[in-house]
Give the backbone structure.
Amino acid sequence: MRQLAAGNAPRATWFMRRVSTIFREVLVNQIHILETMMPVDFLGFRSKLNPASGFQSSQFREIEFAAGMKEPRLLQFFINEPESLAQLQKRLDSPTLADAFWKLLIDRGFDVPHVIEEDDSEACQKAHAQRVKELRKVYQEPEKYYDIYELAETLVDLDENIALWRMHHVTVVERIIGFKQGTGGSEGVGYLRSTLTKRCFPDLWNVRTMIELP
Ligand code: HEM
């Protein structure tokens, strides 16, 4: 984010590559270690975890909030943890990686509007459509805007890696506990599946539909 604020797209790209490698090699791959447990063995200690759950992972929420997926209602799981709560509140109140990316594009002369709040309003939809229109210039002629193109692709890598973690996690969860309710009180697999389409950079995904053969 600091490199983006300084307008240094190549350096930001370099850092994002590191982030993606760590995400993929450490976070996505390690989740499968859990599958080496038999469901019946996991059940042997599952009740002792109750009511703890992944909902209490402040690091996971911090990654989401910092990247651009802010959901204030998720703070409720940290009411008994003042330090985590304060840290997450700070993240909620601070600009995100997505904000930093859009600001860099504005500084480079792109007409990308600021989206104040994500909702179903016409204004919000229009703002996203305008962003996609501007991004299309980059994706249609990558050579012309190569540093921005490369940077944007590393942000898509981050989104893809978070989505991959979610897919691998929910698959492991289904394999171990099936459709049992989560210890954190959610529906379990049903809830986790509903998170699979979350994106920090939806416009960077939507632009692909608009690309045409030159
Ligand atoms: C067999 C092992 C596991 C099971 C059965 C399991 C199950 C679940 C379930 C059912 C949820 C939904 C929340 C709830 O109601 O509890 C959840 C959320 C979550 N779990 Fe796991 N989990 C397992 C392993 C892990 C591991 C190893 C990690 C971290 C490395 C992890 C991290 C998370 C996170 C961060 C969430 C929140 C996801 C979100 O809200 O989008 N889980 N897990």
